[in-house]
Amino acid sequence: MMRCPNCNSKDIGKIGSHQFYCWSCFIELTVNGEKMSVYQVEEDGTLSSLDDLFFSEPMAPQVQVNGM
After folding, report:
1. Over pLDDT 90: what percentage of the chain?
2. From which domain of life does this come (predicted)?
3. What pTM did the predictor assign?
């Protein structure tokens, strides 16, 4: 089970092979190997990185894959 690093919600949807979306705080998460990136979705659909707000150094995602 994955939790949002922003709001700690479990309400995470999978939107791509390595991309997830938090339905509670509306941020997008990308998991690539051991690295997680966090993005804010702007009004025009572009993504703005929020990594500098969440991670002082690369963080391993807290993901358990169950049939994904």
Report:
1. 54
2. Bacteria
3. 0.72
